[in-house]
Amino acid sequence: MYEKDLTTRPDNHKSAWAIERLAALASDIGCPQVRISGNTIKEEILVKDDSYYLIPAREAPAASRRPLSPHDDTSRQPQKDINIDKTYEQMKRCIIGQDELIESVVSGVNYGLVRSRALQSGARARRLPRSSSMLILGPTGCGKTYVVTTLLDFLGIKHFRIDASYLTGEGWRGDNLSDHLKKVQAWQGDNPGKTCVIYVDEVDKVGRDDGLELDGSPGGRTSFNPLPQFLAYMDGGKVPLPRIENGRRSRGSTSSQEEPTLDCNLIIWIFSGSFDGITDCVRARLLAATDLEGERAVRALDVDDLRRRVVVDDLIAFGLHRELCGRIGRIACAHQLGMRDLKEIVSGPSPSCLVSRYSNLLPPGSTLVVTDQAVELTVGRALRLGQGARGLENVLNQPFDRALLEVSRLGSRGEYDVVIDAVEGEMLVYTVTRRHDDDTT
């Protein structure tokens, strides 16, 4: 039972409103009863044994519920449960070749939402599984960030993105963690009770703990490791934000202004990086724990198989900050996109394929065709660049930009047929035809 002393003077006209606010609080924390002492206002209060008991709105009889006041805070409604089947269907419709990653990210975000909701309902953190973050690893251009942001946009969950490679120390000129967290804290103030995601990219590019490369040569250590700054916020609870005064971090509030606090129970942390070379750590661990017969099987594992076997020990061996590794509860793997996946990304049936996206820049009624030969050439070049799906746009941008420039020259009110083709398997070319016209470029 939650007890609150609301003793007020008889002339305090705000006492009724105070009880209403307490009712909202009781409903939020899932408390079955609230005892109020020192008050004589009996609206929506159950009188029992000379004490007043306020019944939460969800348990109160319908007749006892009053209409919402214009001043009632309706923004504290918890976020809805994820419709798992609908989410999978929507995600797999617009994301190609990463079904395993989709399932891992959906399950991780769902865990965070359920845990946050339990804490808001009054559950004690020590009686719940620990708050744990997610780490996504995979090669450059495989869609790690795209999967996360697409899911969060679909679910309507606010997210903040931090590039760890740009972070500097507190008080130094540049991008520091406090600036990002102040934005989160301001959003929480405007959206009480809502859960958000902080997505930290490029964590593998900073803070190698051992100061060595994977082959043992010097060079692993960076001049500043921003990752330890995250630890206090990843443990949950309400954490005060540091004050930066005159370029230095203040150790306490020197004014009467309330200290800004971040509600870390309402934050889901997702870290990401390519972790180039971590497969060597995985193979070394597996070889050390196997016999001669198993050694052949380990050496036969390809890069994607090794990534799927990454555990926290491998992250530590790679050089990721040890304390941060201890707070990572789930590791998701994005695999290298192959030729078939990349072809589908260029011109597949998905509304998010590149042909569909480029077509949206053409005047209404126009069409864009990328021939099979052009797709082959584009995918081959992207694979040689080693940039995955990101490399596809690098290859296609040049011919499409020129085609779009020609469309703008001829006039944006017409309808056009744009074709991108390959010549002798070596060069991409374009043609632009204006319909009802013989003007072809």
Question: Roughly what is the average pLDDT, rounded to an integer?
Answer: 78
Helical content (DSSP H or I, runs of 4+)? 25-40%
**Remind me, CATH topology of the largest domain?**
Rossmann fold
> Main β-sheet: number of strands, strand sense, barrel status?
5 strands, parallel
The assigned structural class equals alpha/beta
- Specify the CATH homologous superfamily of the largest domain: P-loop containing nucleotide triphosphate hydrolases
Number of helices: 15
* Unreliable residue stretches: 1-18, 24-30, 36-76, 210-222, 251-256
Strand order, biggest sheet?
6-7-12-5-13
Q: Please tell me the total number of domains.
A: 3
Number of strands: 16
CATH class membership of the largest domain: Alpha Beta
Given the C-alpha coordinates, what overall shape results?
globular
Sheet-strand content, in percent, reads 15-25%
What value does the Rg take, in angstroms? 28 Å
Compose a concise summary of this entry.
The chain is of the alpha/beta class.
Structure description:
Strand 15 and strand 16 form a beta hairpin. Mean pLDDT is 78; it is low at 1-18, 24-30, 36-76, 210-222 and 251-256. The chain contains 15 helices and 16 strands. The protein is α/β, with parallel strands linked by helices and 441 residues long. The strands form five sheets. Strands 6-7-12-5-13 form a five-stranded parallel β-sheet, with helices on both faces. The longest helix is centred in the C-terminal third of the chain and has 23 residues, at 388-410. The protein has three domains: 2-64, no CATH class; 84-333, 3-Layer(aba) Sandwich (Rossmann fold); 339-434, Helicase, Ruva Protein, domain 3. It is globular and about 70 Å long.
